[in-house]
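Worked example 2:
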Amino acid sequence: MEEKKYLRIVNHYENCLDKYGDTPQGVDWPKKEMAEATYRVMLEVIKPNTDKKVSFLDFGCGASHLYEYIQKRGIRNIEYSGLDISQKYIDLSRRKFPSLNFYLADILDQNVTLPDFDYIILNGVFTEKRELTFDEMFAYFQPVILKVFAKARIGIAFNLISKQVDWERDDLFHMPLDTLAWFLKKNVSRHFIIRHDYELYSYTTYVYREPNVAP
């Protein structure tokens, strides 16, 4: 059976959890402020003036720190669910929030079934490639995005590491904007927004089923 090389990334994050516990460092964030900056941007995928509750899947939820951020900010219109490929993270999240729905799943497993959600976000799922090559990581990224988008009624959000930097790290997934744009247009949707306007060396992309601005 061919090795699922992306599981090496999962192992890296689980090692962080073993070493640092339920902290930002336990999901490999250097600082809490950096993590919260991405949470704010991720949540802005939700279209403004949304009064009714929206179903929301935190794909790669880790320790569910995004849900803690939602609680702290008093955001009421999100029905949160979490998904992770790691048993360790799912066990932790279920202990912390037993009333929430959590899914232990590898989205690339053909036997996995999930309900549809209004929005799905993938925060940090594709930022680190560790020892994988760019092509190996891109080969993982593409089917995941396709499968996740198929489960999103309105849209998805994900972040990647920018190539508009002073220097690149071999363990990070630096995705050219043009490469991403052509993949999305050809395979997913032409209705996307790229956010490169916040104080991190990553960028966030929102992909929607329908245009946000009518002609």
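Residues 21 and 27 are 9 Å apart (CA to CA). The chain has six helices and seven strands.
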